[in-house]
Design a protein that fits this description.
There is one protein chain. Helix 5 crosses helix 8, helix 13 packs parallel to helix 16 and helix 14 packs parallel to helix 17. By secondary structure, the chain is mainly alpha-helical. 80% of the residues lie in helices and 1% in strands. It contains 22 helices and two strands. A two-stranded parallel ribbon has the order 1-2.
Length: 489
């Protein structure tokens, strides 16, 4: 099959077909993240039907969340085959997993079908769709991401009561079968993902020679060669290998390393809440419909957080402070988790769903934006794949750990406190790293300002001057390297 023809653009179009990409990504987040959240409504049904404890039942949600975050797999297929093919294939796998789950006879069966197969299908869809939005938008990137990611909240708002109704009418088996048909819409979403080729992605040989990452010696050698020289092929192969490494060289950036550690703690804190909110509400005397309604509230307020934070952080006054907006949102979600154990009736749980849902939507919208600020747009697809992959380990571990704490202590208090402190630590870590970086730049700036003074003072001593000049040159080079690294982010 012929590969789709790509129209070349000097830069992201910031509109046009880009809004269809946003619509497609919006539907992808409904079919992936919203459906994953609604699996928590099945928690009590699975626990009662199979007669298992909290920890073993929680593995279902953990595995599907973990598999969904295997985003490098989706990025690999998207980069080397096609984003359209990857999302369509993911839709077929996810649908097959949900349909097979409706015939489950044990928890182990659900681990494989609902957990692994459906999760892998979601993984092929989620990251490529989000990265495609970043290719079509630049100036209005945060707003576009806010609209696209709001599908998670809208989907949760609509699907939570619908899934509860389906369980009551058709049992959990019938509900899973209907969800299996619903997620086939991912194939339609994949068809919307028209590839776009930016000029920076298709450099000719003369343009390629202007890139900073091509060694100067190789530039001189190539210019001396004839265009038809067979040595060009060997040189090109070496450059391609170098460029493949450049695609993932952001892994060694200090800023990305700190972001990665922070994401691990953030993901650990947020996952158990979506698994145990409904069971916790039922344990304090809330009815099944009210518990499902809490998920709906969380979902619809999530939408408001997605869109408003996306719009606000695109404003000139906040655009330079996206990092701190992200940190504030994560920290507020952590505080919500700390207060949850004292909220033991429906009227008190409703404000919790409002607050947690709003800030959850806020920081989810800013994850791609903050990642792009750290690594740049050219590495965004690969970086997002790594960032969402980092969610996988906490998503796999945290719900069973929280379930074990519930089984051991007989209450949800320890589980929710651990989640809250984890998210607060994530926010605090990034905040201190950001402040340390700012202090470092200020200090290096003062060293540069003193360079001229030192050269005038030591003009009479040749030896002393040469030592001072050498030290000053190192300071200047160090500052230039730091400034270049910061501008690339």
């Amino acid at each position: 099959m012929a590969s789709p023809r790509r129209a070349r653009h000097a830069g992201p179009p910031d509109g046009g077909w880009g809004w269809m990409i946003v619509a497609g990504c919006f539907l992808v987040t409904i079919c992936t993240r919203a459906v994953t959240r609604c699996i928590s409504i099945f928690f009590v049904e699975f626990q009662a039907y199979f007669g298992q404890d909290y920890a073993r039942t929680a593995w279902i949600h953990s595995i599907v969340d973990c598999a969904t975050m295997l985003s490098p797999l989706g990025s690999l297929i998207s980069n080397h085959v096609s984003c359209q093919v990857g999302i369509m294939l993911g839709g077929l796998l996810a649908s097959a997993g949900l349909i097979l789950s409706s015939f489950a006879t044990s928890l182990e069966h659900l681990y494989l079908s609902l957990g692994v197969l459906t999760g892998l299908g979601f993984a092929l869809c989620y990251s490529p769709a989000i990265a495609m939005v970043g290719k079509y938008f630049n100036k209005r990137k945060a707003l576009a991401y806010g609209i696209a990611m709001s599908g998670s909240g809208i989907g949760t708002f609509i699907l939570a009561p619908v899934v509860q109704l389906l369980i009551e009418q058709f049992s959990w088996r019938g509900a899973l079968l209907i969800l299996g048909g619903f997620v086939l819409n991912l194939c339609v979403c994949g068809a919307l993902m028209r590839p776009i080729a930016l000029m920076e992605d298709h450099k000719t040989t003369p343009e390629f020679l202007e890139q900073d990452y091509v060694p100067k010696a190789q530039k001189r050698d190539l210019k001396r060669m004839s265009v038809c020289s067979p040595l060009i092929k060997a040189w090109s192969h070496e450059c391609l290998c170098y460029c493949s490494w450049k695609e993932y060289d952001f892994l060694l950036m200090p800023g990305f390393m700190v972001l990665a550690v922070s994401v691990l703690f953030m993901a650990y804190g947020c996952s158990p809440l979506f698994v145990y909110l409904v069971p916790y509400a039922l344990s304090v005397g809330v009815s099944h419909h009210q518990a499902a309604f809490l998920m709906s509230i969380l979902g619809v307020i999530d939408i408001i957080g997605n869109i408003t934070f996306g719009w606000l952080t695109d404003r000139r006054c906040l655009k330079k402070h996206r990092h701190f907006c992200y940190l504030f949102a994560v920290g507020m979600d952590g505080l919500c988790c700390l207060f949850l154990p004292v909220l033991q009736n429906f009227p008190l749980l409703v404000p919790f769903s409002f607050t947690f849902g709003y800030f959850d939507g806020a920081y989810v919208t800013l994850i791609p934006v903050v990642t792009a600020d750290v690594v740049g747009t050219s590495s965004l697809s690969s970086a997002l794949g790594v960032v969402y992959f980092l969610h996988a380990i906490p998503y796999l571990v945290s719900p069973p750990v929280a379930g074990w704490l519930v089984d051991t202590t007989g209450s949800y208090t320890a589980s929710f406190l651990l989640c809250g402190f984890s998210m607060i630590f994530s926010s605090t870590l990034l905040c201190f790293a950001r402040l340390a970086k700012k202090i470092k730049r200020t200090h290096l700036g003062s060293l540069t300002n003193e360079t001229g003074t030192k050269q005038h003072i030591w003009t009479n001593g040749a030896i002393a001057y040469s030592v001072t000049a050498e030290l000053d040159q190192k300071d200047v080079e160090f500052l230039a390297a730091d400034a270049n690294s910061y501008s690339n982010r």
